Amino acid sequence: MKIKNSEIKSHLTKAKYEIDYKYYICDYCGKEIILTSNKDERTGGLVYFPQSLTKRNTIKLALHNKCLRAAIAEFENYK
Ligand SMILES: [Zn+2]
Asked: Whole domain around residue 60: which residue ranges?
């Protein structure tokens, strides 16, 4: 039981450390997207844009949820 508690504690510490300092810069508005531990509270993340949308290569962008629609529209208007 003692060992088990220790394992749980170290796991939580590691998880906290990894999450607290992670953020992306939104490719659309240029502001930070903080990656909180609760996925439901996240305001954005990495999005893969397929070749069919970019007309070039598949690209990966960091975007806020609120910026995603605008970013997709930019690609759709770029023809
Ligand atoms: Zn944004």
From this structure: 23-77
